């Protein structure tokens, strides 16, 4: 369908809806549902799927991964269908920010990787799929989740350009920069050789 012209009020509406959708802390929710305690006091203290996995509860980690990616994809697709491409990108960016800085948790959230991948899959599934494969390849070779995240983020703008979605390059660059920023401590540990591997309880 042809893109709809998005007015400022429409974009603002989708920014708000995207933020609220992204700010739902599914890691915290599933940790409580499965009796895993306060996720912010486990491992790295992060609210994402990787830290849920450190509890040893794989179903909770899988559900967190699906829902954290799904919330970004859902609100992005809703905006795309109802208000067009500009609104979809606004909702996508806001959902990522919502995950990283959720109002419900005092603006201390996750690192946004699953939400980032869900957004890319919603906006252009070939780009999203390429980013997911990049994550799997980098994480599989290194056995370090953050390496997968950083690899996928770095390559996302490249995949958007190569796969003919130049309209997504700027958004992918912004999201990738935010992913790298949120992984600042991981980068320090990677340089020091102390970054925990996938499945580690640290």
TrEMBL record:
Biological or metabolic pathway of the protein: Lipid metabolism; phospholipid metabolism
Source species, domain of life: Bacteria
Catalytic activity from the UniProt record: an acyl phosphate + sn-glycerol 3-phosphate = a 1-acyl-sn-glycero-3-phosphate + phosphate
GO MF, one annotated term: acyl-phosphate glycerol-3-phosphate acyltransferase activity
BP-aspect Gene Ontology terms: phospholipid biosynthetic process
Pfam families: G3P_acyltransf (PF02660)
UniProt family annotation: Belongs to the PlsY family.
PANTHER family in the cross-refs: GLYCEROL-3-PHOSPHATE ACYLTRANSFERASE-RELATED, INNER MEMBRANE PROTEIN YGIH
Subunit and partners: Probably interacts with PlsX.
Identification of the protein by name: Glycerol-3-phosphate acyltransferase
Taxonomic source organism: Histidinibacterium lentulum
């Amino acid at each position: 369908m042809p893109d709809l012209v998005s007015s400022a009020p429409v974009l603002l509406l989708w920014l708000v809806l995207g933020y609220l959708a992204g700010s739902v802390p599914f890691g915290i929710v599933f940790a409580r549902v499965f009796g895993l305690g306060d996720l912010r006091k486990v491992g790295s203290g992060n609210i994402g799927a990787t830290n849920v996995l450190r509890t040893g509860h794989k179903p909770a980690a899988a559900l967190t991964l699906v829902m954290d990616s799904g919330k970004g994809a859902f609100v992005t697709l809703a905006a795309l269908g109802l208000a067009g491409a500009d609104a979809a990108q606004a909702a996508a960016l806001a959902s990522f920010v919502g995950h990283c800085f959720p109002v419900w948790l005092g603006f201390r959230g996750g690192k946004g990787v699953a939400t980032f991948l869900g957004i890319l899959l919603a906006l252009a599934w070939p780009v999203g799929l390429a980013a997911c494969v990049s994550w799997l390849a980098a994480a599989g070779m290194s056995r370090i989740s953050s390496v997968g995240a950083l690899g996928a983020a770095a390559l996302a703008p490249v995949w958007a350009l190569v796969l003919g979605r130049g309209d997504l390059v700027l958004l992918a660059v912004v999201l990738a920069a935010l992913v790298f920023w949120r992984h600042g401590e991981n980068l320090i540990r990677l340089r020091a050789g102390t970054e925990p591997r996938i499945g580690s309880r640290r």
